[in-house]
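User: Could you walk me through two proteins back to back? I'd like the raw sequence and the structure tokens for each, with a short line separating them so I can tell where one ends and the next begins.

Assistant: Of course. Protein one, sequence then structure:
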Amino acid sequence: MLMPHPAVLRTLVDEYTALTKNGSADNQAQARDLAYTLCVSTGTRDVRHALETARQWLEAASVTDAAVAPPTDNEPHAYA
């Protein structure tokens, strides 16, 4: 299964969360569209599962990014 880029997934989650806090009619339509996109992006059929899956993927991506981050100037280089 293709996985969305973490930055795109983060944007979808953040926008959906922000829109659902304000219950205006315009926001409801946008929230439905985002819910659909989250479900398609995560391979789920329910927005609650989509949000849970997205958050798990984002957490895993941040752990992976930290594990492969280049050394800082304070850390010795493996090739030095």
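----
Protein two, same layout:
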Amino acid sequence: MWAWNAGGYRRLGATGSVAVAAGGWVAGTLPDREPWGIWVPHGAGSAVTVAGAVLAYAGLTLLVVAWWRYGRTGASTRDTLVTLAWWATPPALAPPLYSADVYSYIAQGAMVLEGHDVYSAGPSVLDPAGLGGDAAASVGGNWTDAPAPYGPFFLILARCVTWATGGTIVPAVLGMRLIAVAALVLIVWALRRLARERGTSESGALWLGALNPLLLTHVIGGMHNDGLMIGLMLAGVVFALRGKWIVGGALVGLAMMVKSPAAMALLFIGVYVGRAATGPLVRRVAKGAAPGLAAVAVAVAATLLGGTGFGWLRTQSVAGTIHTALSATSDIGLGLGELLRLLAGTDPGPVKAAVQNLGLAAALVLIACLAWRTLRARPDAARAPDTDPAPERARPLDPVHALGLALVALVALSPMVQPWYLLWGMTVIAATRPYGRTATVLTVLSAALVYETHPSGATPWYGFVLVAVVCVIGTLLVRRDRKTPDAAPPPVDALAAGARPRTGGAVP
């Protein structure tokens, strides 16, 4: 493959990003009703829509190639931040891309404003001619009658956007995109500081965790609130590592009030804090529990301030009722259930549910093992820089890296998996070992999973074919790079070159 400098790949990726955004204007996830006439759908099979989709796919390919090669240029942190600005700007100015979830967010904000219980009803309860009616008409079919699986803090933000824009589609979508851009800024801030704390490459962390096409397409283009959850969670970890455990726990509490998987961070922050504490066991346990108590206090406060009640506690399993082909446990359970139905005439539903529950149980066991390994590691031995030549499995388990692994395990064994769920753990791992074996696997998956979803938000059959093809190509490229030492990504930051990571507060 050709070799350019960082500037060449920046321009190539920017060209791809512009093409994705341009294609999205006719083939994106356009609203069914839009009174301003700016985002007008042309019909799924029209020549204009097909041409826009082809342009978007071609642009996505340029973006993926540019990102893959950019990570091997040894670009500085400053250059990577400039590249991120170039690549993130086009989708930030485009219509919704790759998902209709933003319409659910706006409709749920309208439901809160009108006094509907978002945890017992879906956007279909809104008056089609009233506040949020246009957004409700554009919500994906699976979510029209589904209650909100999101926490009160995010619903407060959605309510503010809907109130400020009157629920009008274009300004409301742009308001939600401002939240997504703010989430990206927070992710960048946290990645840089976590990389310094863990002694890894800042530019490498930004390349895998922020410049990633999977994040650009689904957090900026699709405006998924997972970006906000990740940003708040990472910020909480940063403060916890600096000895500000209560602030860290509070930020994780806010992240939980966006989406519940952020609660995983409390386990590993608690282990880290408790392990670093001195004195009797009771004292260490109390210190380890302090971040969790702060998070609970924030969750209660957000619930009371939001006025939406504690219904979010019972809607966390709503997403799991929808079958997604990326969930291995759902696919296996469905296959076994259908086989038993053919052989014995039994209902496949209970079989599928049993396999899904077994998957979650296995995830819990893996997470417990990771927490136990982290607890047993010496506090001063957990920070192994990414340049450490020892294999990953031979290094002491860093609690931050363990958090990333735990989130990846949770996603892999979850009953519902979407492409952007990979970002939960990948952004954490990007800050700890952006060039390790696990990160390499996640890099290949990132490059592949961007193809699973059509710009309109649909998941066509050929999307899975493209995912498989890119996985094969990515694996071959990784093997080639391992045989060619000069092809390995050179970390250029001072910290990656061996500088001692900074620590804060009393945390060792």
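Residues 494-508 have pLDDT under 50 and may be disordered.

Let me know if you want the two compared in more detail.
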